[in-house]
Amino acid sequence: MLSERSESKHSLIAALAQDAERAQRVEAVWHVYILLCRDGAYYVGVTNDLERRCSEHFTGRGGHYTKYNPPLRLAWHEAHPTRAAAEARERQLKGWTRRKKQALMAGDLALLKRL
Read out DSSP for 72-96? Predict the structure, then answer.
């Protein structure tokens, strides 16, 4: 029979092992985002750290386009479970018309389907 101290130690080890397994199963969240830029254009990008990436864009360190056409605001973003899924969505959005992107950002699903 195990002592109370030994049982407590085994319970703690088991809980830590479960936490470690759970952490390994959780995938990083990737984001697709749209920035409204000073020139009126929409910039579409992907990142695994939305706050950091927006900060880079807003301080002129985010990429060539946003360095010379600074963003005015984050217009829209969407989370994805994998980088591949986020990049596929980014490619899709980059192929869309301005009007279709605006419908997406406005949440107008009826217009989005028609475009």
Answer: EEEEEEEEESSHHHHHHHHHHHHTS
